[in-house]
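Appendix B, example 12.
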Amino acid sequence: MGKRIAVVLAAGKGTRMQSEMPKVLFPVLGRPMIEYVLDALREVGVEKIVCVVGYRADDVQKALESHDDLVFVEQKEQLGTGHAVQMCLDELRSADGSVVVLAGDSPLVQSSSLGELFEAFEVDGHACLLGTLKREDPTGLGRIVRDASGVFEGIVEEKDATPDQRSINEVNMSTYVFQAPRLVEALSRLTNDNAQGEYYLTDCPKILKELGDKVDALPVLKACEAYSINSREQLAEVERVMAEIGYNKS
């Protein structure tokens, strides 16, 4: 079945955090937020973690130098999430198993959710399986579009969604599992033909589906995994939620 590996996106600055510190190093209950992501990945048997760094890359690498299962790749230009994963192509070309891609600023990621996602992916022969969430208020998030029989069709961003699509409550949380060779194929076909001129990882599921591969979305993520950290206020809210769930300060 091949090894489970991970790509963790950790290149961003986090401008709204009002600090020069790389966003993924902001402490949450006394630990850099990315460390909770690394813990969850190891708990589900991920053997190798490719960490994409960018802003103050040296600081991130130094902070994580004790983690001997990490490989660092640098995204020198911020050209989108797809471009960030393209920086990992050397590592991905030598892989033959499952690749989970997720954000390094998601400390509330749950190993139980990742475990369910991996299990469904590996049992059912997907090329790509998205981990999604059903949310009462989906405002601001990409919606998961399905056909009348419930088959996954794609992701539509809120700004591009029709009124009917905006009423969809299943949302994309930027958590994906791919077959490594199929991810390499999709990345080779990415374009930046969009208003922002960026390469989007969200295009990869669509590319694989159009190639005839099996692509689906599974709403296995927990409500707490919807919390993101883009400001000091959101950081405080995540700390409150983590304390409620039972995370301990280091």
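The longest strand covers residues 170-179. The mean pLDDT is 94.
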